[in-house]
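Hello Y.,

Per our agreement to keep a running log of every chain we model this quarter, I'm adding this entry. I've kept the format consistent with earlier entries: sequence first, then predicted structure.
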Amino acid sequence: MKLRRLVAVCAALALVAGLPAAAATAAPSTTTSTGFSRYVALGDSYTSAPFVPVADLLSLGCARSYSNYPKLLAGALGVHRFTDVSCGGADTTNMTQPQSTILGTAAPQFNALTPDTDLVTLGIGGNDFGVFGDIIGTCPGLRASDPTGAPCKAHFTVDGVDTLKAKIAQTQTRIAIVVQGIRARSPQATIVLVGYPKIAPEHGTCPSILPFADGDYAYLYSIEQALNAAVSGAAAAGGATYVDTFGPSTGHDACAPDGQAWIQGKDINLLRALNYHPRFEGEAGMAALTYKALTGAQPVVTAAEQAAWAARARTLAKQAAASPQIALSPKALEASLNRVRTSAQR
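Predicted structure for the entry above:
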C-alpha cells in the first residue's frame, strides 16, 4: 500500500497466510507436492503482513513477515525456490518501478520474475489512487459530525458520483495490465490474484475498534466489495485464478471477537499487526484459501483448519526468530521501531 506516512500506508488494504487443506479438517503436518517448484510472491502490505510476528528485520522498509501467507503457502507446497518481494505501500506501478520506503528503495517487484517461474501470487490494488488510504484516513475523523449518518460517503460523493468507486474502476485496468506483465515475463506460470478480506462487518458496528459513523460501515463494506470485484475482473480478463477472501472472511472482520478477527482495528500493535491490516489469524486464513484454490478444494476455512495453519505459522516465526541471519541487537531493534513510530506520527 502506498504510504506518505506509515498510518496512511497501514490504511490500505492488503494480504494473508495459509496452510494446506487436504480432505482432513486440519493442515497437514508435511508439505504436499502440487507440481510447483518456483514461486514468486508479489503484493502490498496485505501480503507482506506488517508487524505480524516475526518481522524480517532486514527488509523492514517493506514490512515483510516471516509468517505471511506467501511463506506459509511456499512451505505447504514444498516449492524448491521461493521469492517474496511483497512490500507495504506498494501499488500496481511498483511492479515495474522502484518503490521508496521509510528505510530505502525497493526494486521493482517484477525483477523477481523469471521465465521458469511456475507460480505467482499477487495481492494488489488497495493503494492505487490512494483509495484505502483515503477512506481509512478520512472516515474516522468525520464520525463526530454525524455519528449515526454516513458523512464519509457524503464526503466522497461529488455531483452524484462516488469518486472512490470511480478510481477503483481505473484500478481494475491497472491490475489487468499487471497480469499481462506477469504473463509476458513468466509465460508458464499459474497466476493467482488474492483478494482482500473483510474489514467491516456486513451488519452491526463496533466504534471502539472501527471508529466510523454508523452509516459508513455499509459504505466501507461497499468499497471493499468494489475493490474485490476489480481484482476478480482483472483475473478473469487475464486468465488468472482469483481467490475470494472476502466471502470466506465473514465473521472474521475487525469487529469479531479476539481470536476470531482476521483484521486489526484502529490501533497499531507492534507485536500483532498494523492497524486495519491482517493479523496472524488473517494471514493463516488467506493462506488456507489460496492453497485450496490451487488444489481444487472447497473455499471454506474451518476453525480446525485455521488453527492448524496458524500453528504452522507460529513454527515459522519461531524458526525465524532463532535464525542468526535475522538477529538484531536490542538496541538495533529499538532503533528500527523508533523509525517506524516516527513515520507513523507524521
